[in-house]
Design a protein that fits this description.
The protein has 452 residues and is α+β, with helices and mostly antiparallel strands. It contains five helices and 27 strands.
Length: 452
């Protein structure tokens, strides 16, 4: 009996010693306190806070904590491992320390909980690995891409498209898009500036079409469009808003009208008008080589700038290509005038024949206008102008003058058909009647005298 009591006493002492040794040893515990934001967004960064505790009875020094990089986490702190201060036994109240790490979430991470791995150790001991759950949500993001029009002509209806693309990792819903130009120089027609998209899946795009008109009085230049898009995710009804800007150029090309003004003294004048809605810069007019017409001097002229609605007159020394030169042509017209034939311009068939002589295309002159539009691009417009040549005074006769005999014949025919011709006939008839009456009276007087 005494022997059994002694053995139990020894066993109790050994167990007490083992228990005391265990209570005097440090015991580390690591806990993730929180994450910011919660949930973390794919493609963005998150801050993770940890608490390291000593729940044992002994003091521990040189504790190390390290984050293990595994998908979808990438550590962006400079130090992968952190060395912590001394942790005392849990009875002291100084047995824990809080620390944090910053990680980047992969942009393709799917929504859900992902495991983050970390390890820790005390000096001279082996590493201990632990896992922690981090909540991640897919990135809900839409991108506004303005791709359709970069230039709008004033006063002209133009179709403009905006493309919205879901470039995130989650579907979007209840999307509201609108745009505005602060100065009112560009406005939508047939609809307001707001359009709706009910649902947009991952990677899908939606085209929003507007018909717009730029103010005809808007100054040419680049105008800013304010774009706004609000949307909701399927998991969160709180709307997110994207505000961005796009540029549109108001201006561009214009048009011209060219008309025949007059032709005299060997010069043909043309009126050039800017009939478009944009100014034209550095305008020049030239007469290209063509059959039927010939320029005896400079074939081009510089006008300068023409605002919309403005016009100017430019002159060129132009002669029909088959007339043998400006002098010969003018001399022939001078001789025509000397024969008393009236000149009635475009309604005179003689003028038409002379303008078209030597030209298979008649009296249509080809004119080219070069100008710089408001975008800085050099452009060229070709116009066809009907012209009529007129006589030049003081030109000498020419051996190459056209045959005018048919004109003299026409003059004689016109004379015999005129009122003057009939007046002369009546005059002669009256004179004959008077002569006849005088002769009869004279004969009667003679007969009377002889009878006496």
């Amino acid at each position: 009996m005494k022997k059994i009591f002694i053995e139990l006493f020894v066993l109790a002492i050994l167990m007490a010693g083992a228990y005391a040794d265990e209570n005097d040893s440090p015991v580390l515990k690591i806990t993730m306190l929180n994450q910011e934001p919660d949930p973390a967004r794919a493609g963005e960064t998150a801050e993770l806070r940890f608490r390291v505790e000593n729940i044992g009875g002994g003091t521990v020094e040189n504790v190390e904590l390290e984050i293990l990089e595994n998908y979808p986490f990438t550590l962006i702190d400079e130090k992968v491992a952190q060395k912590l201060v001394t942790l005392y036994a849990y009875q002291t109240g100084k047995n824990f320390i809080n620390t944090k790490f910053k990680v980047k979430i992969d942009k393709d991470a799917v929504k859900g909980q992902h495991e983050l791995k970390a390890r820790y150790r005390q000096a001279g001991k082996e590493w201990v690995t632990a896992g922690f759950k981090v909540d991640i949500t897919s990135k809900e993001f839409a991108q506004i891409i303005y791709v359709d029009k970069s230039k709008v002509e004033p006063g002209k209806e133009t179709e403009m498209k905006f493309t919205i693309t879901n470039i995130g990792n989650a579907p979007l819903q209840n999307m509201v898009f609108s745009w505005s130009e602060p100065n009112g120089a560009l406005l939508p027609v047939f609809s307001d500036d707001t359009k709706y998209v009910k649902y947009l899946d991952i990677g899908d795009s939606a085209e929003l079409v507007y018909i717009v008109v730029a103010d005809v009085n808007a100054e040419p230049g680049l105008y800013k469009l304010d774009l706004m898009l609000s949307y909701e995710s399927l998991a969160n009804s709180t709307a997110s808003v994207i505000k961005t800007k796009a540029g549109v150029f108001i201006g561009g090309e214009t048009d011209f009208e060219v008309a025949f003004s007059e032709s005299s003294q060997g010069q043909t004048s043309l009126s050039v008008a800017n009939t478009g809605n944009n100014p034209a810069l550095s305008v020049s007019v030239k007469i290209p080589e063509q059959s039927g017409f010939r320029v005896t001097g400079s074939s081009s002229a510089i006008i300068g700038n023409l605002d919309k609605g403005d016009y100017t007159v430019v002159s060129f020394p132009i002669v029909p290509g088959g007339m043998g030169g400006a002098g010969n042509f003018s001399g022939s017209r001078q001789r025509q005038a000397g024969q008393g034939i009236p000149n009635t311009g475009a309604n005179n068939p003689t003028n038409s024949r002379m303008a078209g002589s030597g030209s298979a295309g008649g009296n249509v002159l080809k004119v080219i206008i070069d100008y710089t539009d408001t975008t800085g691009e050099r452009r060229s417009i070709e116009k066809n102008v009907a012209i009529q040549f007129r006589a030049s005074s003081g030109d000498p006769s020419s051996a190459n003058a056209p045959d005018m005999s048919h004109m003299a014949s026409r003059q004689r025919a016109s004379f015999w058909q005129s009122k003057t011709f009939y007046g002369i006939i009546l005059l002669f008839a009256a004179a004959g009647l008077v002569f006849y009456r005088k002769k009869s009276l004279r004969e009667k007087l003679i007969k009377t005298f002889w009878k006496r």
